[in-house]
Amino acid sequence: MGKVAVGVAVIGTAAVVAAAALLVRQRMKSSGRWACARALVKEFEEKCGTPDARLKQIADALTVEMHAGLASEGGSKLKMLISYVDNLPTGDEEGIFYALDLGGTNFRVLRVELGGRERGVVHQEFAEASIPPALMSGSSDALFDYIAEKLAAFVADEERIYEQPAGKERELGFTFSFPVMQNSINSGTLIRWTKGFSIDDAVGQDVVVEITKALKRKGVDMRVAALVNDTIGTLAGGRHSNPDVSVAVILGTGSNAAYVERAQAIPKWHGPLPKSGEMAINMEWGNFRSSHLPLTEYDSAMDAESLNPGEQIFEKLISGMYLGEVLRRVLLRLAEETCFFGDEVPAKLKSPFILRTPEMSAMHHDTSADLKVVDDKLRSILEISHTSLKKRRVVVELCDITASRGARLAAAGIFGVLKKTGKDVVKDNGEKTIIAMDGGLFEHYTEYRKCLEKTVFELLGDTTGSSVVFQHYNDGSGIGAALLAASHSLYLEEKL
Ligand code: GLC
């Protein structure tokens, strides 16, 4: 071999050795990164742990808070608000009533024709609109004017087909799904906003006075006959179709529950004892908090940066507004600490609330062999491309951890309510307990729903589990509000 040839061979060997060394380093680096990523996921999973024993402690803590909230105003983080609904619909309700359903970024206007015992809900029409984000933190007048305007358009439109009898005002059931301290069935002041709303001048105001003023400004002649929370509306709507409904749970943007309580078990109720002996209670369980809740650093950071730090802790663990955001935070940490999505942290991943729960749900339910939906969502929402199948599997795993924690905690909440009302044990008379459910999370996130139902049945045990039934009432809260407007109508006497 000539000198040149030897030199080339030496250089060649050196290059091969160097390249091999680089490869080993890179491999070590990437396997080290992978190990770090796995460790991070495992740690998150452990911190989210909800073994049955812990769920039972949470349910017990909830029942203790329920008692405290019923005993005195401000006695607990659970407001246990008195709804003034002491008679749930019987089926006799008749007439045409309106409902306005405001609880999140969308609201609905409904017209419901009730046909009494024989005909039930004869007909319903609705219009839907979204609340422009600017109005969620603007002024009270701006929000209520916007809603009144939509209602005015709805009424104007129907005037072509339906004429309101002369001398009779239209009557409305207003589902306002925020914490309200009621003073009667059709008045109540807003305690505080939740679910991303923050309109300071509305807090402490009577919601019915505000909407009535806005309706006047927009020339709509309408009387608010009932002001209800969506849980109370769902309870009423559910009861109308099934007398065994005694609990209602909303799992949507926010989460909350209502149930029928014995009036005598409400020490803070100083009004006359209702004839029925019962009162529907809006728990506002979103604000529940307990040392048993499995909170992680991601939850604490999300809470600290939220519009309502320290509030709605249970809601922030279980409801649709927050699940996707928790997932985003975990993915961001993976990207920052383990270069999970490449050397650069994807810019979009830093944007709060960019990953919505419906997208998370779509990824969680991806059944394709190569997790195509996960790939699509990562690309379209977060601008992350070229992920390996292995990494996409981690994303699905994180969806599962976050959603299962939420669903199992919501199940503990339901178990707590059943315990408080003595419905966690089988009745000899074969009585059934129907839980009226509504909300987009329950309706669309199948894995969440399945996990929730399975956990409630596990906690109840086989015998009692079989007496509890979950029933989805789509838009039960709107119909429920119309039904309650009917039972509190000004013209009720005339019908008797
Ligand atoms: C939030 C509201 C509550 C409502 C729930 C579901 O928790 O505070 O009033 O019922 O969301 O919409």
Automatic annotation (TrEMBL):
Keyword vocabulary terms for this entry: ATP-binding, Glycolysis, Kinase, Nucleotide-binding, Transferase
Q: Which domain of life is it from?
A: Eukaryota
GO BP annotations of the record are: glycolytic process
| Hexokinase C-terminal domain: residues covered | 247-486
Q: Which residues form the Hexokinase N-terminal domain?
A: 41-238
Q: Which InterPro entries match?
A: ATPase_NBD, Hexokinase, Hexokinase_BS, Hexokinase_C, Hexokinase_N
Signal peptide (residue range): none
The first-level EC class reads transferase
MF terms in GO: ATP binding; glucokinase activity
EC number per UniProt: 2.7.1.-
**Ranges in coiled-coil conformation:** none
For this record, an example GO cellular component is: mitochondrion
Task: Cite a single Pfam family from the UniProt record.
Answer: Hexokinase_1
Q: In which pathway does it act?
A: Carbohydrate metabolism; hexose metabolism; Carbohydrate degradation; glycolysis; D-glyceraldehyde 3-phosphate and glycerone phosphate from D-glucose: step 1/4
Q: Which family does it belong to?
A: Belongs to the hexokinase family.
Q: What is this protein called?
A: Phosphotransferase
